[in-house]
Amino acid sequence: MSQAIKPTTPTIGDIELSLGGKLAGMMPVIAPLLLALAFILSRLYIGPKGLLYEGAMTVLALISYISAAVILVTNLFVRENVLRKLGLWATALGMAFNLSGWMMRWIEAGDAEGWKAGINGIWRYFPLDNLYPLTLGFCFGGAITTLMIIRKEKYQHLGALSMPIVTVILTMAMMLGNHISTLPPILDSYWRPIHVSIATIAYGVCLVSFGLAVAYLLRDGVRTEALAIVTALFGVVGVYVWVGHSQVPLGMEYGASVMMGRSTLPVRATLPGVGPLMELTLITIALALVLFAIDWFRRDAKANRLAWRLFAVAAGLQAVVLGVLFYQLKQVDNVVGQVPASVLPKFGQWLATQNNVAIPPAQYATVAQSFLQERAKDLTISAQSNPVEMGGLIGLFVALVLVALFAWKRERVISALPQLPQIDALLYRTVGVAFPLLSLLLITGAVWANESWGRYWGWDSKEVGALVAWMAYAGFLHTRIAHGWRGRRSAYFALLGFALVIFTWLGVSFLLPGLHSYAEPMN
Amino acid sequence: MATTKTHLPTPRTEPVTQPTARASIIDKSLRLLSSVRFGIIMLMLLLACCMIGMIIMQQNVEGFRTYYARLTPATRSLYEALGFFNIYHSWYFTTLLAITGLNIILASVDRFPAAWAYVSKPKRVATPRFVAAQAFTETASQPGEAGTVAERVAAAWRKSGLRAQVNQADGRLTVFAERGLWNRFGAYVVHVALLLIFIGGFLTSRYGVGGQLELVPGKAGNSFTVFDASAVSDEPTKRAQMPFTVECTDLQQSLIRPEGNLDVMNTIDWLSFVKITDNGKETAALVHLNAPVDYRGYRFFQSSFVPTGYARQVTLTFTPPSGGAAREVTIQRNGSADVEGVGRVSYEDFYPDFTVESGQPDTASGDYNNPAVKLRVARADGKTEVAIAQTAQARAASADKADVLTAATDELAMVAGHRVTLKSFEKVSQAHTLTVQYDPGRMPVYLGFGLLTLSLCMVFFYSHQRVWAVVEPDGKHTQIYFGGNTNRNRPAFEARFNSLVRAVVGGNAK
To answer: Can you say how many angstroms the Cα of residue B404 is from the centroid of all Cα atoms in its chain?
Structure first.
């Protein structure tokens, strides 16, 4: 380079233009893809031996993702090169297992049905038949996008903000259950792999843009108290007010939904000790929230200190809640005995409606009791009883721990993150990829609907959910390109966009009715 | 390495839209309607309406009546008054969509002249000061005269794939090159695509017709039942005419387990064979799941089926009374075949769960519990007989029963002196239902989708890049002021800009 050319610090960094250099830089992405290919081919030619099962691969992926998340978060504080490499390669290994498991489900679905020559041949078994494989794909999308970013040393710490979310989502996937069910004929269309595959990658990119937005806000000096308030609100309003049919705040009780086979009945079995513990955690979080609010408006140092202490206690209590919850799920063997008598009349009424028979309201409880007694040996409770609630509880624990850690070593965390313009540029690039993908998601969904149902748009709740998320990202890009909005305001758009993506992915499937009921888990 | 002026791309600001004191109300309204802020507000209002529509169950969704019954009277009244049960068809939602569309049009019209001027009149002649104001800049000194150096710059850039021009003004030479000019119009194409989708949607809702057509082999019709989308009830209300006739020639149901029933989860595909007669011209077509048929703007989709068991074809055996060799014949639904020694045998009807009601053959259910086929036999002597053929298993199961039904079916199983038995049959449903769609908005919508995909790729994966090299004599040497900018993807442009500078100065700078 000529001396006449002034040496400057590049905005984004040096760009390696040689093919060899590019390939070497891409190794953390290419290597796990090749490893996954090797696993999939082994499964195809060797058969279901050793660990060559979808379930085993997904467990290995979860272990790797948990390790990656812990290492990457630790590296925010410790800053060791060995941790950086370990975090990177644990993510890569997790992605290889994740992709292998996801694709092995394709083989397993075909084997289960005997590879029938359906409308679309092998695409009939493409592993995007319900919410479980969609979630596997979502995690893969999140992991590969994270890898694309953290493979560069200067962005290494950004993985600490996306991998914990990937981990929580994969944990929730495990609770959805991986049973392979027969594909409803209407879904046997080549549009399904096209449309839903786009969703998995788009959601993954949105996940990483969310992590980048949080990183930007932290770097930009947003008070950690703001993060604590949002987390506490999520804990109180988003989790504890509605888990267990709002029995935690109202009755100090928590029960898991009773399952008959793979179907979930609208009745819960109380888990001893869990309800009071949850109530205690809820009160602790709520108190912390109140104190944070006092500090926010009055700048009260005493309230601030106390709030953070309560916040840390809440994180500990949440860990105890999860421990006791999973212990009790294993311990309760008399499921019928744990069903409170107060819920029987409503359950009896539901049974009458389901069976289309007229029963006098006075007999609802008796009918319900006999139904439960007769099928006592078929009734179970497990982590699969309420996967979204479990996901919410685990997500809350992770959020509490991360925010407490960030607050504890705030300066250390901030100094580890890239410069604001770099994060902003990365955020723009991820949203610049997510938005066309979300557009394609809407387009392919509309074309598929038109080819299968004879209409491109039916205002179905999932369609509207995808549209609303698309609008949020359109807002991000429009305000940036046409109005010059960037930085913190753009970051808020990215947070909103991902919240809407999560709502579309999970909330719509579990809470709202519509044509996309296939996306629900088996129950 | 390039000098970067700012860390972030320079934002494009909106044109100054301060209304003057004399601006009319129309001017003010147009400025408001074309502003980005107003567009964002509209977008957020639409988003809020969509969220309400997601959270409150809409009246066209299955289970709405149960949901409605659960609400308190006050909530019902409130939601009804606000149109929340059918929000996507409410006047205010339609108005919001229309205003957003108008905002898109006006914003594009408002900004297009400036964008066009920027594109059509590029700054081909620059000054060192102008170049210094660009996002990426460099300076270098090269030996030789200014003209030679400028040509050398242009040649190097041409070699790098750019169309470089050398321009002269005020005794100064400027080498100018650009690429991806069309990228500047990406946003406008996105807007055109969205408008096309809106127009298509309007054409569909205004002029489109949708309904259902039941198909039973052997039956033809030129009309279908129309659903009234605006009604709470999904009961059919009227019929629509087609300019041609559709006749069902055959139905087929491909099952996962052939021994199983006709339920949805045991089905791979439903196939409906039709014959379309249009002004005497006949066209055969096959409609099956996810594979609609198009004919003169009408589309036929496989929609549902009548879950009563039937047989697509039956295989029968005719056993002579003497016990000689049995004759076997396969007959299609509504078809017939000649059977030696028996006559012409026609397949008239099928009963999956055969019984006799009021002296007539009937079915007790839609399941294949006791399959039987009704046959009409035209004997060689001109007489006609009706026969009922059951499977050997069904006959064996009822052999020890001495009831009226057994006696009747025993008698009906004899035809022209032969005992007829139903050997096997191919399961199919009694009737299929097709969804019929006449949709003049389909083409604009699909065109809009295609254009949207292309334009989004254009906007986000390509960029408009401009580079200048102002060449000025500087004693025995020549000074080159390099400058460049891009509208997006700065990292890639930074690398390109550096390579363009390197292509000129190499290692021979001053």
So the answer is: 57
